[in-house]
Design goal:
By secondary structure, the protein is of the alpha/beta class. The protein has three domains: 227 residues, Rossmann fold, CATH 3.40.50.740; 198 residues, Dimethylsulfoxide Reductase, domain 2; 111 residues, Barwin-like endoglucanases (Beta Barrel), CATH 2.40.40. Helix content is 31%, strand content 18%. The chain is built from 23 helices and 28 strands. A hairpin with a 3-residue loop joins strand 25 and strand 26. Helix 3 crosses helix 20 and helix 7 runs parallel beside helix 13. It is globular, with a radius of gyration of 24 Å. The model has no long low-confidence stretch (mean pLDDT 92). It binds iron/sulfur cluster. Iron/sulfur cluster binds next to helix 1 and helix 6. Keywords: 2Fe-2S, 4Fe-4S, Iron, Iron-sulfur, Metal-binding, Oxidoreductase, Repeat.
Length: 694
């Protein structure tokens, strides 16, 4: 007799929501998950968890899951359930037809940051070895691609510098464009603990987040900048440090390129970058910037944590480089308590980038033009890899509208909801002849699909996720895939249908191939992960037990690179028609576009997205708390309820984007980061007016 609540079997696995990567023991009774128990030995969470990882797993057995493959010749036709064999053969023959008819570059794929490293590796392998082009991209395009570019330029590698434990040694913490209390709750709790112990906090954010002021926590400085002015504020902070002689000259001479530093110091010292010269357009009082800069430069170990409020801007990459400059000029790199720490959004966005999901990079961030790197994969796979970068997601959509891009394989990603300019995404998808969506549910993108391949959850597969601190954590299968196959098996079967001789019998064999081909993963294998719990890359002959902190003795690129960060105002301007600026964020109980969390009991905590409006702006428009309002921009309009609050400044409005009815990306613009095309989600000129409801 089994007592109520008593598990029959269990396995330690990794949460599939945010980039903290918490470990849980998944307790099962037969094929039913009865409990997720935070795992005390989990090195990212040490027994802690949040309401998403702990409770929001019901989507895995939700009735909306699609368990059988489906095909339709035209997107106006009804779906027809078919066998796996028919679905994969149809997909393979369609992709081959398209390439024969329109050329090798007419098809591509999008990897998922929700899937495992092994699945992502196989997706890019299918595209590079099977499709014969580099048309592979990932959802990092719309979130942390500027992190990859900016940190790669400054330090030589596209990842955060620290482990989460590091925050326990911080004396001053800058949080810019992030709300870890809601977005990365378990790390947020560790940060709050350190703040309660006396560390000082500087928040740079248009909105008064919980970190600015909550019980027992009060930020020393809240730089409530106008959306879109991150670069100006970061450069003004650097101006104060350099012109007041607060730089760490020993560190700079020892670790950085001195002539580049001198050039950069001359640039930031210009009067036009001073807090006084910039306060008009940043909205941050000069005195506040001066005091914050002095605190960061002289307050001991200084750490910087940032999120999508940095990257999702037309100057996202520039802001990342400005953050790197600030860390280097104050000597805050290469030891516990310091560093540059991107708070990655999705569970495996770090891993999807590591695994070669970008059209210009092979696994391990090696450019496709690197002959030696290509040679490794060509010998292993027996193919020739193109030395030309492929298309990014927005370029694929543009090419589809123009008529040259015809087929797309999308794994675990809802680009119609998550990518900018919804109308353009829809037009691009509608113009293609074969769109294949692999997902748990019929998502919005599936409205434009010709083939639907059922996806599997993290509970149904083995593999690894890599969290925001580069920690490679094991994912362990606790239930049989409800659709018959784990995602890596579906990709393998499609590859076979296209004529490739893949014979993986377990994801551990894929990891072995990753280790052979990718130097930063050379020491990673399943027996080692099972033995030590998890490991942070690079893990190889130079770092046999992994690398909790990077750039300890020297930067990966050699000398740290100071880069001029010229502020360029976004083209998205307010004016009489659209006088307010909209910015967006997340809430604790929900996750991204809500595809999973809305299908769990967590939805009761956040049944709808609301628009935060300052009392002054609300009064001017006759809007009261909980009223329906119409939110309009140059791109489109939507309707949602208002919350009147001083969390936002006058002139700024804010919403979350967890419910499809909010249609946040109908409102946002098509401006994007100059280096990576990451969309500028965080700055949209809008108007609001009373409404009777949707
Ligand atoms: Fe999952 Fe992130 Fe919550 Fe941890 S903090 S339980 S990884 S959602």
């Amino acid at each position: 007799v089994i007592a109520i609540g008593q598990p029959e079997h269990s396995a330690v696995t990794t949460c599939a929501y945010c980039g903290v990567g918490c470990s849980f023991k998944a307790e099962m009774r037969g094929e039913e998950l009865i409990r997720m128990v935070p795992w005390k030995e989990g090195q990212a969470n040490r027994g802690h968890s949040c309401v998403k990882g702990r409770f929001a797993y019901g989507y895995s057995t939700h009735k909306d899951r699609i368990l059988n493959p489906m095909i339709r010749e035209k997107i106006t036709d009804p779906w027809r359930e078919v066998s796996w064999e028919e679905a994969l053969n149809y997909t393979a023959s369609e992709f081959r037809r398209l390439q024969y008819q329109y050329g090798r570059a007419s098809v591509g794929g999008i990897t998922s940051s929700r899937c495992t490293n092994e699945e992502t590796f196989l997706m890019q392998k299918l595209i590079r070895a099977g499709f014969g082009n580099n048309n592979v991209d990932t959802c990092a395009r719309v979130c942390h691609s500027p992190t990859g570019y900016g940190l790669g330029q400054a330090f030589g590698t596209s990842a955060g510098t620290q482990n989460f434990d590091s925050v326990e040694h911080s004396d001053v913490v800058v949080v810019i464009g992030a709300n870890p209390t809601d977005g990365h709750p378990v790390f947020g709790s560790r940060l709050k603990k350190r703040l309660r112990q006396g560390a000082q906090l500087i928040v740079i954010d248009p909105r008064r987040t919980d970190l600015v002021k909550s019980p027992h926590i009060k930020a020393a400085h809240h730089l409530a900048l106008k959306p879109g002015t991150n670069v100006a504020v970061m450069t003004a902070l650097a101006h104060v440090i350099v012109t007041e002689g607060l730089q760490d000259e020993g560190f700079i001479r020892d670790r950085c390129d001195w002539s580049e530093f001198e050039d950069w110091a001359e640039f930031v010292s210009e009067e036009r970058h001073s807090p006084e010269a910039t306060e008009d357009y940043t909205g941050v009082p000069a005195d506040e910037i001066r005091r914050a800069a002095r605190l960061f430069a002289t307050g001991g170990n200084g750490a910087i944590y940032y999120g999508l409020g940095v990257t999702e801007h037309s100057q996202g990459s520039t802001t990342v480089m400005a953050i790197a400059n600030l860390a280097m000029v104050t000597g805050n790199i290469g030891r516990p308590g310091v560093g540059v720490n991107p708070l990655r959004g999705q569970n495996n966005v770090q891993g999807s980038c590591d695994m070669g999901s970008f059209p210009h990079e092979l696994p391990g961030y090696r450019h496709v033009s690197d002959e030696a790197a290509r040679d490794v994969f060509e010998k292993m796979w027996g193919v020739t890899i193109s030395s030309e970068p492929g298309l990014r997601i927005p370029n694929m959509l543009d090419a589809a509208v123009e008529g040259s891009f015809k087929g797309l394989y999308i794994q675990g990603e809802d680009i119609l909801q998550s990518d900018p300019d919804t109308k353009h995404v829809a037009a691009g998808l509608a113009a293609m002849e074969c769109v294949v969506v692999q997902d748990l549910f019929l998502n919005e993108t599936a409205n434009y699909a010709h083939v639907f391949l059922p996806g599997s959850t993290f509970l149904e597969k083995d593999g690894t996720f890599t969290n925001a601190e580069r920690r490679i954590n094991r994912v362990r299968k606790v239930m049989t895939p409800k659709n018959g196959y784990a995602d890596w098996e579906v990709t393998q079967n499609l590859a076979r249908a296209m004529g490739l001789d893949w014979e993986y019998t377990h994801p551990s064999e894929i990891m072995d191939e990753i280790a052979i081909t990718t130097p930063s993963f050379a020491g990673v294998n399943y027996p080692y992960l099972d033995q030590v719990g998890s490991v942070q890359w690079p893990c190889n002959e130079h770092f046999p037990v992994g690398s909790p902190i990077m750039h300890v003795d020297g930067f990966v690129r050699g000398k740290g690179k100071f880069i001029r960060t010229e502020y360029v105002a976004t083209d998205e301007r307010t004016g009489p028609r659209f006088p307010l600026l909209l910015t967006t964020g997340r809430i604790l109980s929900q996750y991204n576009v809500g595809a999973q969390t809305r299908r769990t009991d967590n939805v009761v905590w956040h049944p709808e997205d609301k628009l935060e409006i300052h009392p002054h702006d609300a009064e001017q428009r006759g809007i009261h708390d909980n009223d329906w309002v119409k939110l309009s921009s140059r791109s489109g309009d939507t309707t949602l309820r208002a919350t009147i609050t001083t969390r936002v400044s006058p002139g700024v409005v804010y919403t979350t984007f967890h419910h499809p009815t909010t249609q946040a990306n109908v409102i946002t613009t098509d401006y994007s980061d100059w280096a990576t095309n990451c969309p500028e989600y965080k700055v949209t000129a809008v108007q609001i007016s009373p409404s009777n409801g949707p």
